[in-house]
What does this fold into?
Amino acid sequence: RKEVEQDPGPFNVPEGATVAFNCTYSNSASQSFFWYRQDCRKEPKLLMSVYSSGNEDGRFTAQLNRASQYISLLIRDSKLSDSATYLCAVNRYGGSQGNLIFGKGTKLSVKP
Amino acid sequence: ETGVTQSPTHLIKTRGQQVTLRCSSQSGHNTVSWYQQALGQGPQFIFQYYREEENGRGNFPPRFSGLQFPNYSSELNVNALELDDSALYLCASSFRGSNSPLHFGNGTRLTVT
It folds into this structure.
């Protein structure tokens, strides 16, 4: 089993749609979880951290399920500008922020 | 606040050559991590440096080496380049001990021919 696995893409959705991405991780000792957004041929940029109680930032909602070892990202009211690859990242050991393990990413295309 | 900067932006090398990539950390950050991202893949952790010492390493051979300097800037060196080393190399800085996430530089795209 891979350390971090994401939904295979791509996701093609119309503007205004709600889309959800899931990501599973294998290391139960992981403590830090993140969603990054990566535009074509650019560096990943932090979208949001994922907290145990779940957290929301505008149209974006992230959730963590420790028992099942997965995190999710929900995007409501999709915009054309949301088109990108979404990467989930989990720290390998308990604590060190730098040792993040990334999934392969899920590509999202939002169409008019 | 100065972000993470990497140089060069693009590089073309021949198999067997050596390459050095450079990174300046974001001000206030004391930890630097290097990642390799092949086309269609997520970033793969190469290693991390803290206080000028390697502090964690991914599944990369010894021909991948690095340095961190007192001003927290860093270098990634790759010897005996192979075709499969062609990728986007990303540097990320963070502040160890806090809950700050990684901040990536814009990357160096290396092509090995």
